């Protein structure tokens, strides 16, 4: 009996052990079933795990209605730097979509699909690469067209684009080319809403013109104001003012009292280069030939021949960058009528090292072009006139008799700070009335300090040394060529500048 009971107990124990082993083995087997989860990283650091990537992505998209409405898009995407990695694990515990969403929101902004525009200029070593973000390339392209129309008359632009410009018969002008000086590249990208993302071409065009999103300064016209006086009072030149106010056609336009005009300083983000071919008839002012009679005393003067202007038909190629004339090349010049010099005989019983204030020689050869007048330019005073013509290496002449008090050469093209930005230059004291003249950016200098020069004497050649704009480059070695001609009462280091045209 006892043996039966023992055997029964043994069987029961064996069964219980079997059940326990089976149960434990089954439980162990269930825990070892692998599952796929998705680890979320920000900039390489894991912030949690979600169960389903597509569901999490859709959750993110649903939470961003404000962003979708603001930019007019259908979908919002993960921030840049967020990656999701599928992993197989035995740990099925995951975070909720809301938990991971809040962790991302606290660290980064979400993104939308758009276009990143990169603006660069490999020709300028100090150029700072710029980036612009838009919903698509077409917005940028339209903004560029609007920017071009700030610098080119709409009718002329439309004729250029349509290929319907009238050919030059005798005189006239045509647009040869319109281009952007910088390198522009486009790239589709996921753009963070932290960035300024342009959705409207007009808004982008204003940014391209002014270089800022800040509201521009305005001025309310008063009785008696003119385009020139308003521009000058706000440190703009007339061309800059007209570009900022495209509804005002010209410097001679009448401004009515109460009209609000834009006086913001333009600072274009890109450089619109417009090349124009022009043929026009230009008068060549007659020269004044002064002959000195050693038998007559100083102060004796009489005319032996009256002067008469000449006429030339001049063909030129002009280059404008953002509406400013930056260079010109004389292609051809035909004399239609020769100029006749006025001949004056003056008494002179001593060396004419003292200037004759009644007659001043023009400092360059003809034909020439004034690229910048005396007055405000780019927000600061340009106390001189910039003269181009007829080209690099042409003659530069003393405006009157005097003594060279400074002459510096040795500058090479591209050294913007040579001789304190003046480049190769000459300074002349005219020894009367405290008049001084300065000639800057020369290619070569032909005189030295202490030398007495006479009116019309060649003192050097026209160039582009020192600080000039546009900056010369390997593919535009003569960019910026001009004579910076300045006049002073008193030594230029401490005297008062005045408009050189007052001498003529």
Query: Total strand count, please?
Result: 29
At the first level of CATH, the class of the largest domain is Mainly Beta
Secondary structural class = alpha+beta
Unreliable spans are 24-29
The name of the CATH architecture of the largest domain is Distorted Sandwich
What's the mean pLDDT score?
Answer: 90
Rg (C-alpha, Å): 38 Å
Distance between the termini: 146 Å
Helix percent band: 10-25%
Overall geometric form: elongated
Largest sheet: 8 strands, antiparallel
Quote the CATH topology of the largest domain: Glucose Permease (Domain IIA)
Number of domains: 4
Short summary:
This protein is an alpha+beta fold. It is built from 9 helices and 29 strands. Helix 5 crosses helix 7 (201-210) and helix 8 (227-233) crosses helix 9.
Descriptive notes:
The termini are far apart. The chain is of the alpha+beta class. The strands form eight sheets. Strands 17, 20, 22, 23, 24, 26, 28 and 29 form an eight-stranded antiparallel β-sheet that branches. A four-stranded mixed β-sheet has the order 7-4-5-8. Strands 6-11-14-15 form a four-stranded antiparallel β-sheet, covered by helices on one side. It has four domains: 1-28; 35-108, no CATH class; 116-262, no CATH class; 272-503, Distorted Sandwich (Glucose Permease (Domain IIA)), CATH 2.70.70. The relative contact order is 0.08. The protein has helices at residues 2-31, 53-62, 65-71, 97-105, 137-151, 154-162, 201-210, 227-233, 238-244, and strands spanning 35-42, 45-50, 82-89, 111-120, 130-134, 172-180, 183-192, 197-198, 218-220, 260-262, 272-284, 288-293, 301-305, 310-321, 324-337, 342-347, 369-372, 375-377, 380-382, 385-388, 395-397, 402-408, 424-429, 435-442, 444-445, 452-453, 458-461, 483-489, 496-498.
